[in-house]
Design a protein that fits this description.
By secondary structure, the chain is of the alpha+beta class. The protein contains two helices and six strands; from the N terminus they run ββββαββα.
Length: 128
């Protein structure tokens, strides 16, 4: 059985593209906190997620970096030969479902509250 469930925050800007046949595909990274802290500091894993078709379009339309999501899907691995001749491997989660735990408006409000622009924070530099 190949089944993955993640709950975390979107850690990057969502990239929405279309295949040559017009199928939507979105790539994002979900930051998931580890269940333990090392030296009192919480660590996170950053997991690449791929969404297809309407799920991809809706995610790109309604969520932003920092939004909380629940994703379930499967792990997929692939490999390729890089320009330097070394074989590279990629592991990602291909999502079957994504649940929006925040709206775009809620995420923007929380980010504005935590990182107000008047204090010199630039929202594109927020670490998740």
């Amino acid at each position: 059985m190949n089944k993955v469930v993640l709950i975390g925050r979107i850690a990057n800007e969502i990239v929405l593209r279309y295949t040559t046949s017009g199928i939507a595909v979105a790539n994002l990274v979900v930051a998931v906190n580890r269940p333990f802290a090392k030296d009192g500091e919480q660590k996170a894993d950053f997991i690449p997620v791929t969404l297809w078709q309407k799920r991809a379009e809706n995610t790109a339309k309604y969520l932003i970096k920092g939004s909380r999501v629940a994703v379930d899907g499967r792990i997929q691995t692939s490999s390729y030969d890089a320009e330097d001749g070394i074989k590279r491997y990629r592991t990602e989660v291909v999502a079957d479902n994504i649940q929006f735990l925040d709206t775009k408006k809620e995420t923007k409000e929380k980010l504005q509250e935590q990182y107000p622009e008047e204090e010199g924070y630039i929202h594109d530099e927020i670490p998740f």
